[in-house]
Write a structure and sequence with these properties.
mainly beta; five-stranded antiparallel β-sheet
Length: 430
């Protein structure tokens, strides 16, 4: 009922123009797609229950089969240097959740930037995070007692890890690593569900600063990595490299820029849908105005001319960021029912709360921002770092909710629209 009341006017023109139709249902034109229908008002369901000192940096992942979902985040400790990676799990598609529990405990040592994934073979959860300056990994079979160091560089160390699962038992991990010069993008792979990590490589050793990588694996097993690359003196670009694995080696293609002539672009995210690649990223203009852009590649993606700009910017009107961390608008993307969904945070122009980000979304089946954004949260409190996943026909959104100095992790669920919506059809009997 809520959806019909809110969007009924959108279909009024189609209703007025309805004519008698006789023919197969498959020949009927689809009606416009509706945005997700959120089950509750914001902030939604508190996930970081009992995090009296706060929680930050959520990511949501679902198991390959069934209704199991996991949210990983960093729980603040009693001091600024006592954070631990933490998780909460749902067995019913995000309706109810377990009490938060530690992925790993290291009293007096700081843990940040946790990332998680599900192994497609065993359905086990895996996590990686930055511990002090090193990169650690642990399978859920060892939570919270044991962790494996993947990389332990000299200062300033590791940042921005992303962990994903691909073929049965394969785990893929990218991060930025800096030993006192310019950060490079590194890659590690396990072929046995995290028991060993025999592949440890540098994707691109460039003379400029490489940060915020993301990784995807397509249906052919090719590895795709994107990252933010500085372009001296004061610009950035999004670079892409493709990895072809053969045994314990990965052959990486030469990095190419996929963002054309844009001069200030950051925070890339990549998703493989079959063998098609989708990348979103943030663009900047004067006055700290920011937008989300989208490019797609279907074949031979090592050739930058095969990356197509898809009616950008997809986010619509300009956004901004809070004067304190985060300084940049970030996005998260997922795919279902032939639609690409992209959610992001950002401040809104002329808002009564100019320093408070809201979380909004757009999708390809609804004309991106042409029909307006799906604004999920309200600007009375800050909402940042969205992470989305799609389980069956339900969209799961987790994010960091900021009320004054208190940071907590919340979840909201929405029903996705069906593949096609049809108007009534009148057929005269012969």
């Amino acid at each position: 009922m809520r959806r019909l009341l809110q969007y009924g006017l959108r279909f009024l023109g189609l209703v007025v123009g309805l004519v008698l139709w006789r023919g197969p249902a498959a020949a009927r034109p689809p009606a416009p797609t509706l945005p997700p229908d959120w089950e509750t008002d914001p902030p939604g369901l508190l996930i970081s229950v009992g995090a009296d000192n706060g929680a930050k940096g959520p990511t949501v992942q679902h198991a390959p089969d069934g209704m199991e979902v996991l949210i990983a985040f960093v729980q603040e400790g009693n001091t600024d240097f006592d954070r631990d990676p933490t998780y909460s799990r749902s067995a019913d598609g995000g309706l109810t959740w377990s009490a938060p529990a530690p992925i790993y405990q290291s009293p007096g040592v700081d843990s940040i930037q946790v990332t998680a994934a599900y192994d497609t073979a065993a359905g086990l959860a895996h996590a990686a995070w930055v511990e002090n300056m090193a990169l650690l990994y642990a399978s859920e079979t060892n939570w919270p007692n044991a962790a494996v160091p993947i990389s332990s560089p000299n200062p300033p160390g590791v940042s921005d890890p992303v962990l994903i699962a691909s073929a049965a038992g394969y785990l893929n991990l990218v991060w930025a690593e800096d030993e006192g010069s310019n950060p490079d993008i590194r890659f590690a792979r396990s072929l046995d569900g995290g028991a060993t990590w025999p592949i440890l490589e540098t994707v691109a050793a460039t003379t400029a600063s490489s940060l915020t990588p993301d990784v995807a694996v397509d249906d052919q097993g090719l590895i795709h990595v994107v990252w933010q690359e500085s372009v001296p003196p004061h610009m950035t670009n999004i670079l892409y490299s493709q990895g072809a694995a053969a045994g314990l080696n990965v052959a990486w293609s030469a990095p190419v820029a996929i963002t054309g002539d844009l001069s200030e672009v950051r925070q890339p995210r990549i998703l493989a849908v079959g063998n098609e690649l989708h990348v979103t990223y943030t663009t900047f203009a004067e006055g700290a105005q920011q937008w989300i852009h989208h490019v797609v590649c279907a074949t031979q993606c090592s050739d930058p001319t095969n990356w197509q700009d898809v009616g950008n910017p997809i986010s619509g009107q300009a956004m901004g960021a809070n004067a304190s961390d985060p300084y940049e608008v970030t996005s998260s993307l997922a795919y279902a029912n032939d639609c690409l969904y992209v959610y992001f945070h950002g401040t809104e122009p002329n808002s009564a709360y100019p320093d408070n980000e809201v979380i909004s979304g757009v999708n390809s089946c609804d004309g991106w921002s042409a029909n307006g954004r799906d604004r999920v949260t309200e600007p009375q409190t800050r909402a940042i770092f969205p992470s989305i996943a799609i389980l069956a026909d339900r969209l799961l959104l987790t994010y960091e909710w900021v009320n004054g100095g208190d940071h907590q992790i919340y979840l909201m669920r929405a029903d996705l629209p069906p593949d096609y919506l049809y108007l009534p059809v009148i057929v005269r009997n012969p």
